[in-house]
Amino acid sequence: MQKVIYTQRVEIVESYQERRDCADQRIADFIYACGFLPVPVPNKNDILEEFVLQLQPAGIILTGGNSLEKYGGNAPERDRTDRRLIGIAIEKGIPLYGFCRGMQSILDYFGDALVSIGGHVAVRHKVYCENASKEVNSYHTQACVELGKQSELKVISRTEDDVIEEICHSKFLIHGTMWHPERENPFRETDIECVKALFGRKIS
After folding, report:
1. What share of the chain is helix, strand, coil (3-state, %, to 5)?
2. Strand locations in 75-159 (E)
3. If you count Cβ atoms within 10 Å of the first and of the last residue's Cβ in the chain, which end, N or C, has fewer?
4. Domain at 82, CATH number
5. Burial of residue 10 (number of CB atoms within 10 Å: 0-12, 13-18, 19+)
6. Domain of 103?
7. pLDDT tier at 29 (50, 70, 90 boundaries)?
8. Is the four-CA dihedral 70, 73, 74, 75 of positive or negative sign?
9. What is the pLDDT of residues 37-77, one digit of tens each?
10. Could you tell me what percent of the chain has a pLDDT over 90?
11. Is 204 part of a structural domain of the chain?
12. How big is the CA angle at 8 (ends 7 and 14), to the nearest 5 degrees?
């Protein structure tokens, strides 16, 4: 079974003076449902390249949790992990998928700004792609509403209030969604098929 590595959020436990890497168990369940062996990656920037080199993953997933530091977050090591993994994915042609904070990291990497928004926490809403629509979950307070004029990213879907909910890169195998695929019960076949298709591709 091919491996997929996924990032972890940072939890700060003051009583133990610890900064802990952790992730919702449903993320591993979702990756396994997609047909891959899930492997969590630590927020240790100095070993990321060796980590990827040794594991040879079929794909990389940037998960949710922790705002980016420039937008009020308190986990700069998480920012460094996401940014380095995006760079490694591009350098080595590894498909990369980011959801929620993961998509925000992709946007930030390519120079597209986030803004504070309301009405997108713990709700379900529709997203629109050309003539189709679907209902998704939403758990974020920051989002992108307009890509920069020089952006390398493309918008796939938006909400009715014009928030960008899904993106892809114009050249690299990079895909992002603002919804959490692991929080659907049961997991949606469309999310599973999207990940399978992305991680089954290679840059020619």
Report:
1. 30, 30, 35
2. 96-99, 115-116, 121-129, 132-139, 142-143, 153-159
3. C
4. 3.40.50.880
5. buried
6. 3-199
7. very high
8. negative
9. 999 999 999 999 999 999 999 999 999 999 999 999 999 99
10. 97
11. no
12. 155
